[in-house]
Specification:
Length: 128
């Protein structure tokens, strides 16, 4: 059994994605709002994406910029220049939803869903 586990872990390491990435989890913004911002920067170079995010008037823009900067820093750790980077993949998955109650008339209660996001940005080098 241990040999099979060793073979599986070696195969997983061999097939692992080595592109620089960054993830921000449990961000208190709805993933629907984050995806609008991610659609804007997907495919852009790092410098263009950072400039767009700094000038975008959306609540998710500062958070996405922070994740983008983190991915670029991870790329520099792998000896890839920031000028060679572009946003290969960017997606927002839904995290856990916080359920809250809003009191209404006649003793009723309406549910409020406060959604969270897991934001992932994967960079790639343009000089491959």
């Amino acid at each position: 059994m241990a040999t099979r586990m060793k073979i599986k872990s070696e195969a997983r390491e061999k097939n692992a994605d080595t592109r620089p990435r960054a993830t921000a989890k449990y961000i208190r913004i709805s993933p629907y709002k984050v995806r609008i911002v991610l659609d804007i920067i997907r495919g852009l170079s790092y410098t263009e994406a950072a400039a767009v995010l700094k000038n975008t008037n959306k609540s998710a823009a500062p958070v996405v910029l922070k994740v983008l900067d983190s991915a670029a820093a991870n790329a520099e750790y792998k000896n890839i220049s920031k000028s060679d980077l572009f946003v290969a993949e960017a997606f927002a998955d839904q995290g856990p939803t916080l359920k809250r109650i809003m009191p209404r008339a006649k003793g009723r209660a309406y549910r409020i869903l406060k959604r969270t996001s897991h934001i992932t940005v994967i960079m790639d080098s343009s000089n491959k």
